[in-house]
């Protein structure tokens, strides 16, 4: 009887093994999970083809997810219009680069809160990010966006023009006095050569950085320590504006808009090789490498009376509330902080957002910086000030750049800054109060 049971048992076991072999199942090789359904994520962006390689890197990691860039203009009105247009068409956007006030998008309910996603994201647990990295994009407990890229800036230098006038490349510790002195030394109107490119980048980047480095304003854009009021009307900051205006009106080392036009705008384009200094970031580097006919390099922004800073922009990347693929869209956001994506951004001239020795060492290897002032690149990792504004009520209506442009390049009266600044200070406080009341309801 026992032998009969053994034979039957053996036959059953053999039958099971044969059936398992036919079906492809084995105890060591469990059945595969079904492939995820293909997903296409629509990303609103004003970039051209620059990020195609990054899209492909993401697709390689998540083969079922494809990034479809949707071109928009870099302004709040066009971005919001495109979000509404795609929503109405039944093909909602999933992700967006944000220009303008994040609060304007938040007020219309267009943004998904990223904090719950990030709190559950295990890949973030072992990453070290700079202190306050998300501060400019947090509002009332909600994370409205994350920095897509950390864009540092430098003074771009035409080394050939400096050498022509007997000026050596300054050290990284140079000062604002050195900057102005060299600009005058290399200026030769008879040859159409000037110290500074006629560029509002000096108004947008250099001037507010000087005010911060000299201790005249706690933050960029002349904002006070609490980032609730502009200090653009104060005597010290007005003197900073006069300082930059002096390059045009006293030194002649930078041309006004009208004078530049008389000279066919040659001095308005650093690539012409006729100016020594320009402010630049990752957007300018590819053109320099490809088209510059002169020897160029970078320097950090000059040292002020109290500090030496670098100017940074954090480009906000948001997950849109209308997305039908929020989990997949968040994967694109999380991917930005993986080492492979961070290295790609370094290759493009941006900073690594993640603090990691491997990324710091990679700066020395990045092809874009070979033969350049790599130490200046490394300085920008630790001495950066980030342009605020993303969650400052009414920041897009703060007209500081245009006002100062008119003073520096068109000779407008500097006193015009005072009433308009006072008006904006009043309005931003009113908008803050409105937000408080809306939140309390």
TrEMBL record:
<dbReference type="InterPro" id="IPR050490">
    <property type="entry name" value="Bact_solute-bd_prot1"/>
</dbReference>
<comment type="similarity">
    <text>Belongs to the bacterial solute-binding protein 1 family.</text>
</comment>
<protein>
    <recommendedName>
        <fullName>Extracellular solute-binding protein</fullName>
    </recommendedName>
</protein>
<dbReference type="Pfam" id="PF13416">
    <property type="entry name" value="SBP_bac_8"/>
</dbReference>
<keyword id="KW-0813">Transport</keyword>
<dbReference type="InterPro" id="IPR006059">
    <property type="entry name" value="SBP"/>
</dbReference>
<keyword id="KW-0732">Signal</keyword>
């Amino acid at each position: 009887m026992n032998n009969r049971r053994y034979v039957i048992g053996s036959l059953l076991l053999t039958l099971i093994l044969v059936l398992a072999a036919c079906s492809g199942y084995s105890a060591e090789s469990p059945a595969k999970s079904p492939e995820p359904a293909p997903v296409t994520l629509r990303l609103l962006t004003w970039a051209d083809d620059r990020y195609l390689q990054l899209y492909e890197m993401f697709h390689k990691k998540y083969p079922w997810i494809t990034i479809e860039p949707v071109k928009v203009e870099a302004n709040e009105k066009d971005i919001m219009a495109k979000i509404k247009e795609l929503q109405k068409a039944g093909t909602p956007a999933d992700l967006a680069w944000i220009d303008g006030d994040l609060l304007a998008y938040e007020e219309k309910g267009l943004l998904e809160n990223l904090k719950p996603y990030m709190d559950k994201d295990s890949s973030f647990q072992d990453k070290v990010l700079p202190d306050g990295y998300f501060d400019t994009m947090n509002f009332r407990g909600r994370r409205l966006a994350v920095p897509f890229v950390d864009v540092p800036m430098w003074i771009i230098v035409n080394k050939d023009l400096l050498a022509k006038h007997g000026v050596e490349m300054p050290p990284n510790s140079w000062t604002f006095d050195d900057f102005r002195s060299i600009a005058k030394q290399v200026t030769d109107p008879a040859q159409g050569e000037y110290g500074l490119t006629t560029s509002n980048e000096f108004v947008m980047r250099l001037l507010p950085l000087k005010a911060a480095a000299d201790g005249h304003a706690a933050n960029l854009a002349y904002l006070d320590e609490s980032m609730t009021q502009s200090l653009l009307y104060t005597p010290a900051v007005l003197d900073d504006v006069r300082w930059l205006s002096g390059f045009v009106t006293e030194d002649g080392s930078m041309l006004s808009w009208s004078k530049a036009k008389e000279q066919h705008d040659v001095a308005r384009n650093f690539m012409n090789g006729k100016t020594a200094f320009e402010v630049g970031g990752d957007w300018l580097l590819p053109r320099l490498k490809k088209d510059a006919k002169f020897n160029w390099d970078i320097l950090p922004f000059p040292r002020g009376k109290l500090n030496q800073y670098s100017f940074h922009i954090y480009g906000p990347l948001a997950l849109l509330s209308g997305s039908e693929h929020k989990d997949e869209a968040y994967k694109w956001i999380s991917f930005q902080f993986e080492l492979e994506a961070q290295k790609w951004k370094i290759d493009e001239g941006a900073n690594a957002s993640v603090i990691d020795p491997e990324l710091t060492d990679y700066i020395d290897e990045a092809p874009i910086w070979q033969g350049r002032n790599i130490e200046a690149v490394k300085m920008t990792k630790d001495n950066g000030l980030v342009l605020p504004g993303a969650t400052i009520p009414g920041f897009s209506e703060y007209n500081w750049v245009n006002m100062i442009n008119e003073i520096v390049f068109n000779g407008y009266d500097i006193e015009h800054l005072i009433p308009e600044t006072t008006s904006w200070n009043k309005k931003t406080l009113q908008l803050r109060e409105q937000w408080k009341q809306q939140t309390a309801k």
